[in-house]
């Protein structure tokens, strides 16, 4: 048990160090980061509209980019975040009038919430930092459990192939990565807490989904080709960027392109009917 606690402590330390130094808010506000944000917001709105959702849980709320916006739109939001640095930044955005509850918590344990407590559950960050299949299944199971039947669970992932293409080859890190044994024979990146991000492939996401009391509705490429051409996207004027978004949204559900996206959004619907 002590060993387990020590391991969780190390994982937490790596996350605290990373998010204390990294400007995640700035990334999502950048032109290229806006593609992921706007795409995710579109699908959140679609799910809300279809189910008339009013109560929303965001697990791994980060600095509140989604939670605060949804609360300001009048939704009853519960924001759960593990990293204290992110919680402080989230709370600084609030003026006290938003219908939002902010609490520190872990995606692996949502026991503070009853079954079927929320209309919509967002898991937009935790899967980036869960390194075992057991933990991924636990986080997904908890998210499904607290969502009402017929409600949606939206889950974000970081994908394997863009890292191989842009980091291993694009940044000429092949020798270093091989020396550290961070690639399997079939070119899957090996992630540990010190690497911060866990990378996944589409077939692995599908295997996780098969073990849930939920069915996949869509798997979406939330940034598609955007991060391969960040400088070009960031330099676009408003008209060109609007056209890029139009193109991106037109192709972001094409399954032949999904695995090459840096981020994906898995949209699940909990089985059963709302009472």
CATH-derived architecture: 3-Layer(aba) Sandwich
Radius of gyration: 18 Å
CATH level-3 fold name = Rossmann fold
Order of helices and strands: HHHEHEHEEHEHHHEHHE
Compact summary:
With 275 residues, this protein is of the alpha/beta class.
Describe the structure.
The protein is of the alpha/beta class. It has one domain (2-270): 3-Layer(aba) Sandwich (Rossmann fold), CATH 3.40.50. Helix content is 43%, strand content 18%. The chain has eleven helices and seven strands. It has helices at residues 2-21, 24-29, 31-51, 67-72, 84-92, 133-145, 160-169, 174-179, 202-210, 230-234, 238-251; strands spanning 55-59, 76-81, 100-104, 118-123, 147-158, 214-221, 263-270. Strands 3-2-1-4-5-7-6 form a seven-stranded mixed sheet, with helices on both faces. Strand 2 (76-81), helix 5 (84-92) and strand 3 form a beta-alpha-beta unit. The protein is globular and about 50 Å long.
Main attributes of the structure:
275 residues; Rossmann fold; 18% strand; seven-stranded mixed β-sheet; alpha/beta; 11 helices
């Amino acid at each position: 048990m002590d060993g387990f606690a020590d391991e969780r402590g190390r994982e937490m330390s790596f996350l605290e160090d990373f998010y204390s130094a990294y400007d995640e808010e700035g990334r999502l506000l950048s032109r290229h980061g806006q593609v992921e944000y706007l795409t995710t917001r579109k699908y959140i709105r679609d799910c809300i509209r279809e189910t008339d959702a009013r109560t929303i849980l965001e697990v791994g709320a980060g600095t509140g980019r989604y939670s605060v916006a949804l609360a300001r739109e009048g939704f009853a939001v519960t924001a759960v975040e593990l990293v204290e640095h992110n919680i402080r930044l989230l709370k600084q955005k609030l003026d006290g009038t938003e219908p939002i509850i902010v609490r520190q918590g872990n995606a692996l344990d949502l026991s503070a919430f009853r079954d079927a407590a929320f209309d919509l559950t967002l898991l937009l960050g935790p899967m980036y930092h869960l390194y075992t299949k057991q933990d991924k299944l636990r986080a997904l199971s908890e998210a499904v459990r607290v969502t009402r039947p017929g409600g949606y669970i939206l889950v974000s992932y970081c994908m394997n192939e863009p890292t191989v293409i842009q980091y291993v080859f694009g940044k000429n890190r092949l020798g270093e990565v091989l020396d550290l044994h961070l690639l399997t024979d079939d070119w899957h990146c090996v992630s540990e807490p010190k690497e911060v991000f866990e990378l996944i492939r589409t077939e692995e996401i599908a295997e996780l989904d098969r073990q849930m009391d939920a069915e996949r509705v869509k798997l979406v490429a939330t940034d598609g080709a955007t991060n391969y051409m960040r400088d070009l996207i960031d330099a676009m004027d408003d008209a060109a960027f609007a056209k890029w978004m139009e193109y991106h949204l037109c192709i972001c559900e094409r399954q032949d392109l999904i695995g090459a996206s840096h981020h994906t959004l898995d949209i699940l619907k909990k089985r059963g009917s709302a009472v």
